[in-house]
Every structure is written in C-alpha cells, then in structure tokens.
Amino acid sequence: MNHKATKNTKVTKGIFFVVFVSLVSLWLSHAQETTIKLAVRLVNVTATVRGPDGQLARALTREDFEVLDEGQAQAIRVFAREAEVPLSIALLLDISGSTAKDLKFEQDSASRFARSILREQDRIALFPFNDEVTQATAFTSSAIRLEQVLRSVRPGGGTSLFDAIFLAAEQLRKQQGRKVMILVTDGGDTTSHIGFKEALRAAQEADAVLYSIIVVPIRSDAGRDTAGEHALQLLSEGTGGRFYTPENAAQFDPVFAGIADELHTQYVLGFYADPNLAAGGYRRLQVRVLSPGFTVQARKGYYLRDR
C-alpha cells in the first residue's frame, strides 16, 4: 500500500473540508447580513389623535389605526403608547438680538416644562442659536442641569434657524425612542447656510416631530416675517407637530403645557417598508383612525434609507 498517496489524499480531503466550511460560513454570514439589512427598514410614525370632541384620544388600540404608504395600507408591526417609549427632546432656543426682551420668560417656561415632562428614561438637550448654533448640553434627564445652562445664555446676533433644525435633527438621529424638537423663535431666519427643504428632510430622516413656538409681538402683517412663520408652519405640520403663535410672554406656560399634554398621549406605529424599494426616495404617508370624527397629527412622509 502507498502510504504517501494515502497521506496526500487525507490532506486533500482536509483542505477541501476547510474550504467547504469556510464557504458555507461566508454564505451564512452574507445571508444573515442581508436579512438584517432588510429587517431594519422599519418606518416608525409618531401620532397624536383627537376625538370628535377635540380632546386628545388616550385609549386607542392597534386595531383602531390604519397606515397608508403611497396610498397602500400597511401591516402595523409596532404599536406602543407614549408611556412605553423613551422621549428625546431637542430644545431649540432663539437667542438672537430680536428675542432679547422675551428671553427670560422663555427660559422660565422652558425650565418649568422640563421639570414637568422628564421621566427617568427621557432625555433633553439645549440648542441655543443666533448667528451660530451650539449644542449647549448633552442629552440629559436632569432638568436642573438644563436650567443651569438655560440661565447662562445671552442674546445677540442674527438668526440661523434652519441651521439649528438641521443640527438638532442630526443629533436626534442618534437617540432611541420618540424624538421631538421644540423651537422657540420670532420666526425670522437671517444667517442660515441650510435651506427650508434641507431642514425639513433632516427632521423627517430623524423621525423627529417639530413643535414651533413663534413669538409674534406684531399682529398685523406690516413688520412681521410672515414668510418665516409660514415656513415653520409647514415644517411643523410636515413632521406631525404643531405650531403656536403666542401674543406675549405670558402665554408661554399654556403653550408648553399643551405640548406636554400631547407628548403624554402619543402613539408610535411602525411598519416594514418594501425591501425592493431603492433607498433615498420620498414616500408619502397617511395615518388614519378608522372610526369617524377622529383627527390625526403625524408626519406627511419619510425618506427610505438603508441602515
């Protein structure tokens, strides 16, 4: 018997077995990677619902909702009420020269809002802006920490409003759960590098809901930046939020209380987007309650992404 040939045969079989196992492992790894890639195309929508009486609807179930993607009904794979989902809030505070006289009232109301809304699992971060935008705090569950930094900001300079929305959206994308931007401004943008469309897209890609508090000291059209107000209205409605136009600083507390009430009654709905769709495209969304007389605030669309 040729022992050398037998030995070579065993070596060859061993090499073949190693190669075979490696190929199978590579295939399984690729298959798993592909599965994960498709699975994460989950689209989450935050919805606020009011009943026929105009009051917030607090006890709806998954079966009460319908979600339409480009007009096609989707199976709702995720359903949660606000209490079950952590909340990340980006507080965008206009500290340009034009807001100086109202800044203290804004600081006081924002501090009270933070104390009333934050739970242990929630986070808030401050983004003051004038000519420049800064993230003055990391996302924190400490209302005291937020208040300390709020008191330290000083007014002056121009207004980079769209830049502030863009930067806050980029930071919110890194957070988990519900994502909210609360913007306090007089409505004008004078120094942004980012435009309206880019700001809206950034907010939608972050799955963020925008609430705009537009301080309007002049009620007549003369002297008001009505274009800026209209842009913020579109931004708020396009993300499923709301806009407010208080006449004076005394109305800040009721506005913040109204936002807090909505945040305490929201629903999170999720569905899986068609895995065959190309990334980057814009898709129109509609969320409805099947019973008549209900109205739903939810974002109007989303950008499909692979990640």
Structure summary:
36% of the residues lie in helices and 24% in strands.
Topology diagram in text:
Blueprint: H1 3-39, E1 42-50, E2 65-69, E3 72-74, E4 78-81, E5 87-94, H2 103-117, E6 123-129, H3 143-152, H4 161-172, E7 178-185, H5 196-205, E8 208-214, H6 226-238, E9 242-244, H7 252-263, E10 267-272, E11 282-289, E12 295-297, E13 301-303
Parallel strand pairs: 5-6, 5-7, 7-8, 8-9
Antiparallel strand pairs: 1-10, 1-12, 2-3, 2-11, 4-10, 11-13
Helix pairs in contact: 2-3, 2-7, 4-5
Order of helices and strands: HEEEEEHEHHEHEHEHEEEE
Secondary-structure arrangement, i.e. CATH architecture of the largest domain: 3-Layer(aba) Sandwich
Largest sheet: 5 strands, parallel
The mean pLDDT is 86
CATH class value of the largest domain = Alpha Beta
* Portion of residues within helices: 25-40%
Provide the spatial order of strands within the biggest beta sheet: 6-5-7-8-9
User: Which segments are poorly predicted (pLDDT under 50) over 5 or more consecutive residues?
Assistant: 3-24, 26-39
Query: What general outline do the C-alpha atoms trace?
Result: globular
DSSP, total strands: 13
**What is the CA–CA distance across the termini?**
60 Å
CATH topology value of the largest domain: Rossmann fold
**CATH homology group of the largest domain:** von Willebrand factor, type A domain
Computed structural class: alpha/beta
Rg, rounded, reads 25 Å
Number of separate helices: 7
Total domains, how many? 2
Strand content: 15-25%
